[in-house]
User: Fold these one by one.
Assistant:
Number 1:
Amino acid sequence: MLNIALFGPPGAGKGTQSEFLIKKYNLTYISTGDLLRKELAAGSPLGEQAREIIASGGLVSDEIIVQIIEKTIAENAQGDGFLFDGFPRTTIQAYILEGLMIKLGTSLTFLIDLQVPENVSVERLVNRGKTSGRSDDNETVIRNRLKEYHEKTLPVLQFYKDKGVRHKVDATASIEEVNRQVLDIVKEEQRKRLFNVVIFGYPGSGRGSQGKALAEHFGLEYVATGRMLEEEIAAGTETGKRIEKLYETGELVPDEIVVPLIEKRLANAKGVRGFIFKGFPRTLVQSYILEGLLRKHDATISRVIEIEVPTLELIRRLDERSKTDRCMPYDSSTAKIVKRLQEHETKTKPVIEKFSQLHEVHKVDGMDTFDNVFQRIADIIEPPVM
C-alpha cells in the first residue's frame, strides 16, 4: 500500500501533483475540505454536527474530522493506497493519522514537501486571480494564507522529518520536472520496503510449486512452513518428532512450533527484497502474528493470492502425489486427505475472508498448465518498481 501526504503552500502546485499521483498509482484522494463538503451535502450525522459548528462560527473539531477520514479509509481499504492533501495540519492530527494507519495494518509511506519561495507563490496566485475570478487571489489575502500555512505546517513537517519520511521537492521547476522528482521519491521508498506475498490455496492447488518458481522469478525469499517443519523432522529433533505425530493424524502444527521458525527466518534473511509466504498464515491467530512480525521490519502484506481448484481435482492430485517421492504424510490415505482439506476449510478460509477486508485477495484459476497459472499470478504480483 502506498500512502502519501502531500504538502505545499498555496500556489505550490498540489492540485497538479495530486492528479498525477492519483492517476499514476491508483490512490484514493483524501482532502478534509472535500470530505467535509461531501458529508454536508449528504446530510449525514457527521455532516450535520459539522454544519452546526460552522454555523456558529467555530472550527470543525479533530474528533469529527478523524471520523470522516476513518470512514473514507475503511470504505477504500482494498485500494492501492491513499493521497492525503492538507492532512494532517497539526502534530495532533499527525498522531491521529498514525493511529488510523496502524488500524489498517499499514503506515504513511512518506510526505512530499513541495517547496516554493513566498514571492513565487504570490506571483502564481495573483496571476491565477486574473483569470479565476477568485476574490481570495489578491496579494494581501495570499500573504495571510502563506503566513498561516507556515505557522501551522512547520511542526508537522518536523514531525515527519524526525521519522525520516519527509522529502523536499523543488516546486519552482516545470510540471514535468516536479513529476520526475516525485517519481524518484516513490521509487526510492518502494525499494526500501519489503515486498511480501501470501499464497493461499487448498493442499494440492499447486501453491508450493508456484511459490518456489515465483520467488525465484521475482528475487523474493520463499518461506514455506512445510519445508521448515520437514527440516526439523529430518534432523530428528524432539520438535521434529512432535511434528511427525501431528502429520500422521493430519492435524495442524501448533503456533508455538511454527511462529518461532517463521520469526527466525525473517530475522536471518538479510538483504532480501521481500518474501513469499506459503502455508502461513493458516489460522486467524497466525494472520495477526504475521502482520505483527512484518511490522517489526516496517513492512506489510503487499499481495494476497488464492489459487482455486475444484475439490475433486484436489483429491485426485493428492492421491497421485501419494504415489511419488513428493508424498506428504497426510497424503497416505483418502481419510487423511479429506481431513486436511476440511482443516483448510474451517481454519484457513476465515483468514482469507479477513484478508479480503484489509487487502485485495486476487483469485487465480488453478485449472490450467503450470506455466499459464504461473503467468497469471506473476501478472498480479508484479511490483510497481522492479
Number 2:
Amino acid sequence: MRRQLRIRTRVLLTLIGLTTAILLAVGLAFNLTVRGTIRSRVTSQLASVSESASFDRRGMRGQHQKRSDERPDRLIGSMGSAAVLDKDGSLISVLRGDEDAARSLADSLGIIDLDSSVKYKMISVGEDQYAVSISDDPVQKDYYLVSFVDVTAILAFASRVNTVLLVIILSAILLSVLLSRHFAKAFAEPVQELSAFAHEIGDGNFNTRDLCFRDVEFTELASSMNHMASQLQEAKQKQETFFQNVSHELRTPLTSIRGNAEGSVYGIMESQSAARVILEESDKLGGMVEDILYLSRIGKEAPKAVTEPLDLRDVLSLCVSEQHAEAERKGILFRFGFAKEPVILNIREQDAQRLFGNLISNAIRYAKAEVRLDCLTDNDHILVRIADDGPGITSEDMPHIFDRFYKGEGGKHGIGLAIAKSVAEAYHGELTAFNDGGAVFEIRFHG
C-alpha cells in the first residue's frame, strides 16, 4: 500500500524538491561550463607560452611575429609566464613573467613534480593558484621548460558565483517552504470543508451549504455536492411520502380482509361472499407489491435482449379488456382511433402491458364518461395517446406527476405513472402529459 501523505506535506516536498533540483542543475551546468572554458583557455594559453618560450630558447624569436601569449587572456585576465628548471627543480632562468613568482613556483614543484607527460596541473603558491605545464627544454638536456598561468582571479570568480548560487538555493528552499504552506492551506481547507460536508450527507443531513472558494474546481464540486444533497433530500421526502401512502393503501385492504375473515369465522357473514371480498383485496395488495418490485427493477434489466415485435393495437385492446369491468362499473366508455395497418414495436409484452395498463387505469380513475385511445404511426414515429374527459391535471401536480412516490389528489400510491415513464424511456420513447378537455398522456416512440 502506498504511503499516504497530507496535502501540505506533499506540496512542501514537491516544491522543495523541484526548486532544489532546478537550481542544482543550473549550478552544475554553470560549473561544468566554467571549468570547461577555463580548461580550454588555460590549455591554449599554456601551449602558446610553451611554444613562444621554446622559440626564445632557440634564439628564433626575431623570426616570428608577436604571439598572443604576450597579451593578457580576456577571460583569465593574465599573461602566461615561463621559466627553465633543472632536473633537481632549481630555477635556472626566467624567460618571461615575474621572477619571484617563478622562484616560488619552482620551490613548490620540487623534483618529484617535474613530469612532462602531464598536460597541466593546478599548483597553489600561498593564496595564488597557477596552472602549470612542464615540457623538456629544447636546448639543454635534463632541463625543463615550465610554463604557468595565474588563474587566481578566475577561480575566485567561480567560487564567488558558487557562493551566490548556494545562497540562492537556500533562499529558494526557504521560499518554497513558505509558499508550500500557503498553497497547501489553500488546497487543504476547501478539501477539509467539503469532506466535512460529505460526512454530514453520509450521516443523513441533506441541508445544503453556501460554499464558495477561490478555485473554480472546488466551487463546482461544492455546487455538485449541494445538488446531490438536494436530490437526496427530495428522494428522502418522496420516500417518506411513499411509505405514508403505501401504509394508507395497505391499511384499507388489510382491514377489509381481516373484517371479512373474522365475519366468516364467527358466522356473521356468508362465507362465499367474504371469500370473494378477500380475494379481490388480495389481488389489490398483490398488484401494489408487484408495482413496487417492478419499479425497483426497471432500468436494471436489458429490455432489448428479450423483446419481440408486437402490434400495439392488440396490446392496448388487451389492457382495455382487463380493465373493462372497472370502466363498466363507473360507466366509462372507450373510443378507439387505431390505425388500419399494424403498429409494430419491438418491446417485451410485460413491459407494454405495464406501460399502457397504468395509463388506462389512471384515465379510468379520473374520467367522467369516456376514455379515448389513439394508436398510429407518424412519419418514423409511433404515437400512442390516452385521453380522458376528466378535470385534467392541476398546475401544482403537472411538474411532478411522473415523479416516483408523488401522489396527486385522487391518486393511488404514486408509482403507476413513474413506472409508465420508466418503461417508455427504456424503449427510447418519450411520455408527456398535457390538458386538452381532460388529461392527455402521449407516448412517442422513435423509429
Number 3:
Amino acid sequence: MKKIHYGKWSGDDAEAFADELSLEQLMQALSGMLLMSEMGDASLRDLLDALEQLLMEAATAPEDDSGPLDERQREWLRQASEEQVHAALQRLLQRLQEEGYIVPAETAVAGQEPFEAQSQTSHAQHPGHFGGQERVRFEITDKALDFLGFKALKQLLGSLGKASFGRHDTRELATGIDVSGSSRQYEFGDTLNLDISATIGNALRREGLNLPIGLDYSDLMVHQAEYQSSCATVVMLDCSHSMVLYGEDRFTPAKRVAMALAHLIRTQYPGDSLQLVLFHDSAEEVSLSQLARVQVGPHYTNTREGLRLAQRLLARQRKDMKQIVMITDGKPSALTMEDGRIYKNAFGLDPLVIEKTLEEVAQCRRSGIMINTFMLASDHGLVQFVQKVTAMCRGKAYFTTPYTLGQYLLQDYLGKKTQRIH
C-alpha cells in the first residue's frame, strides 16, 4: 500500500510546496490551455511548461491577482532555484495523476514508466530538465472534464445575472422539484407530488380530529409546479479551420460552452439528452467525454452532412422536443456526394451546396426538429444562409462572439425548459 507522509512546510521544501497547492485552483487556471485545439496532442512537457508559466506569472503578479498562490508561496518561488522549481513541478504532475485529473494516453510510447516513476528518474538523470517526457502524451480524465464543466457553467450562470443554485458555493448542484402557486386536487395521471399539509387538512375537515387519520381519494392535494418537457439536443460544432484563423480562437470557447451545457443537463435535467456532432469536410459524432480533446479539423464546412447525422441521432430519441444547436463561423462550402466523394468550393455559397443543405433543413422541419444557429462571424454570406435556415425551421439565429456565446446559448436552452400549467 502506498504511504503518504504529511508534514508542515518549512518554506524550503519543493515537494511540500507542491503538496500545499490547491489542484482545483490549478486546474481552473489551466482550463484555457487544456481545452485549446492544439492540446489534443499535448505531451507531459507541454503540461509542465504550462504549469511553470502559470506559477511564475502568479509569483510576479500583483498580490490581489496572484491566482492559486499566497504571499508565502510567491516569495518561495521568487527565491527558489531552477532545480527546486522543477522538483515542485514534477510533484504537481504526480499529484494530478494521483488525484485522477490526468492519465497516460493510450497512444503513449510503449513501455513507458508511470508518471511518478518517470518524473523521478528523468529529473535525477537530467537535473534542471524534463528528460524524455516530451514523448509521452497525456489525457485529462472524466473527473477533470466534470470539474471544468462545473466551473464553466457556474461562470456562465453568473454572467446571466443568476445566482448559482443556492447562495453557498458547492461542488454539487441541487436537485428537486420547483413548486409555484397553490396546490390543487389530485387527478389521475398527475405526478404524486403531494402537498402533505393540504392533504391532511382535508382529511381532518372531513372526519374531525380522530386517530388514525383516514385518507380518502378526494383528500389528495398536489403541488402545482413548472412543467418541464424533455428535450433531445444535438450540438453541431463547426471545427473547420476557420475557427482558429484570423488571430482569434473561436473553437476553445465553443468547447467550453458545450461542456457547461453537458454538465447542466446531467445534473439538472437528467431526462434530457445531449449529443455532439463535429462537422468540417465531413461529420462525425464525438462522445462528450472526448470533448476536451477534439481539435480543429480540415478546412471546409460540410453543414449538410452534419445535419444528416444530427437527424439520425435525434431519430433514436423519444423526447417531447428535439433540437439542433449549430455553432458555426462559416457558410457551407462542402458536400458529400452519393458516391462518397467530397465536393468542395472554398468560396462558399455554391448553388449546389446551398440547395442540398437547405433540403436537409426542410427535412428537419418535417421531422419536427428546431434548428437554432449561433453565428460566430458576421460574414454577409453566412448571415444570408442562416436567415434562410431560420425562416424554414422556425428556429432562432444569434449573432454572438466567443465571449457571449455561452450567455446566449444557456438563455435559449433554459428558456425552453419551463412553461406554466394551471
Number 4:
Amino acid sequence: MSRKSRAVASPRVVSVMDLRPLARRRLPKAVFDYLDGGADGEVTLRENCRVFDDVTFRPRHAVAVPECDLRTRVLGFDVSFPALLAPVGYSRLMHPDGEAGAARAAGAAGTAYILSTLSGHRLEDVKAASSGPVCYQLYLMGGREASEAVIERARVAGCAALVVTIDTAVAGMRERDFRNGMKELMGDSVLAKIPFLPQVLSRPAWLAGFLLDGGLSKLSNVVIPGKGPMELIDVSAALAAAAVTWNDLRWIRNLWPGLIVIKGVLTADDARRAIDEGAAAIVVSNHGGRQLDGVPASLRALPEIVAAVNGRVEILMDGGIRRGADIIKAICLGARAVLCGRAYAYGLAAAGQAGVARAIQILRTDVERTLKLLGCPSIAMLDRSYIDVPATWG
C-alpha cells in the first residue's frame, strides 16, 4: 500500500466525510473553500445533503441476500455500481493528479468520469488515463469556433457522451471565494497576491506539488483561435458570455453525433424541453448549490422530473451524495444513477488519485451493505416501495 493510500485507509477514513478534514488541512483556505463552498447564504448547499434525512427506508427483513448485483447500465454503457464521477472544475488546482487521476480511479473502479471544461489536463490525456467511459462536460467558452473545436476533439478521442450544463448564465455569487481573494490569487498581479500569501505558505506540501506541476495551468480544452488555451483568470467573464440556450442545443446536436446529456434541470418544463431538443438523458442538478441559492435540493426536485419524463429518457441526479444510502434513495425515487462531485473531490484534495479511489470504494461498499440490509438483491429491483417520503412530495 502506498503512502497516499495509507493516509486515507481505515480507520482514519471510514466515511466520505472523513476525507473533508484531510482536504482542509492540505489545501490553502482559498482552494478548500472553492471546493467546499456554495452560493450566497449556502442554503441550497446545506439542503442538498439534509434532504436525504426526510426519506426513510422500508426494509424487507428475514431475507437472505448473500450476493447483490450493483451493476447498472447508463447512457449505453455498464458501470459497476450506479454512481458516476461528476465534472469538478479546477481539479488540478486541488492536486497535481487532477482530472487524469480522478478518471484513472473511476476506470479502475468500473465506473465513468465526466470531465469539466474547466480542466487543467487535456481531454485526450484524461480519456487515455481511464479504462472506463469518459464523458465531456461542455461550456460554450471562448466562442463558437473554440467550442466546435473541442466538440470535435471529444468525438475523435472517443468520449461516451456530451454533457451540456444549462444553469450557468452567470457564475453564482460564491462569497467565500470573494472573501478569500480567489480572483487575486489566480490573477497576474503579484502585488494583489501579497495579502493572501500566508494561507498559501501555510500549506507547504500543497505549494510544493503546485509548483512542481508547473503552477497555474491554462484551460487546455478551451483553445481560442489565434490566441491558444484560455488563461484560468478569464473564467468568470468567459462563463458570462457563454450561456447555453435551447437554440444552442440544436447547433450542438448538429456537431455531435453521440449522446447529449442536459445537466442542470430542476423543473418539469425544462425536462420536457430537454427531451424535445434531443437529450438522451437529464441530470437533475442545482450545480451543488453553487449557482442560484434558494432552489430546491436535487433530491426534492427529482420526483417532479421523473413524473414529467415518464420513462422517455434516463434521469441522473447530482447533489448532496455523501453515502451509499443516499444513492439508494435517489434510485428508489426514479434516478438511473447519480453523479458524485464533492464526495470524490475531497478525496482528490486529500490524497490525489488514491483519495478518489478510497471515496469510490467507500460509496460502493455502502451501496452493497444498504442493499443487503434492505433485503434487496439488486439495483434493478429497487423502487419506491423501499422508501417512505413525506406526503407533500407527491
